[in-house]
Structure formats: C-alpha cells, structure tokens
Design a protein that fits this description.
6 strands; YdhG-like domain-containing protein; single chain; alpha+beta; 45% helix; 5 helices
Length: 122
C-alpha cells in the first residue's frame, strides 16, 4: 500500500487518530501564536514553520510528538528539555504526558529571533 505524502499541514494532521490530531493542532496553534509571520510548509514529510529559514519542525509518532528546533533551539533550552528524551536537534514529548506548550512557545520565539539576527547579518 502506498501512502500519499501530505501536501500541507492540514493533510498531515488529518492522517492521525482524533486524540493525536487535537494535540497536533494545539502544537500548531502554539507555534503560529509564537511566530505569527512564519509560513507553514511540509518539509522532510513533516510540518515546518519557516521565517528567514526553518524555525521548527514537528511530527507525531506512536508514543510522542517530536519537536525539531535544530541544535541551537535545543542547546538554549537544554535544562528545561533535560527531562525529555532528546537528540542533537530533536526532543520527544510523550503523548501520555501534558504537552509543554509554554516551553514550545519559548523555543519558537528564540528560533524566530535567531533567524532574524542571521538574516540581518546577510
């Protein structure tokens, strides 16, 4: 069976069970609120927000929501993210725990500012 790649974030979110869709929509709204000028897109088959470059990606998995704020976003919030399973540029928020929307907001605002500063230097 061939699975169709989502063309937009609505299609991506629509491919998950209702309970996960609710969380994904809230993550999406949290990112939109923190980065109101960022544009939505699908990149690497994941929802992404772009403003002077990629701000963040997010994705749903069987047991977690992944947030990808590139290494800099994770390094800046290493202490707050330390309780979650993470990699160099990723963090896993377990679906069975409360999503840290306030932390997502802080990370996104940091990444927007960082991208803006990088763009000014160009």
């Amino acid at each position: 069976m061939e699975t169709k790649k989502p063309e937009n974030i609505d299609e991506y979110i629509g491919g998950f069970p209702n309970d996960v869709q609710e969380i994904l929509e809230k993550v999406r709204m949290t990112i939109q609120k923190a980065a109101p000028d960022a544009k939505e897109k699908i990149s690497y088959s994941m929802p992404a927000f772009e403003q002077n470059g990629i701000v963040v990606y997010f994705a749903a998995f069987k047991n977690h929501i992944g947030l990808y704020a590139l290494p800099s976003g994770h390094e800046a919030f290493a202490e707050e993210l330390s309780k979650y399973k993470s990699g160099k540029g990723s963090v896993q928020f377990p679906l069975k725990e409360k999503m840290p929307y306030d932390l997502i907001t802080k990370i996104v605002k940091f990444r927007v500012k960082q991208n803006l500063e990088k763009a000014k230097k160009k």
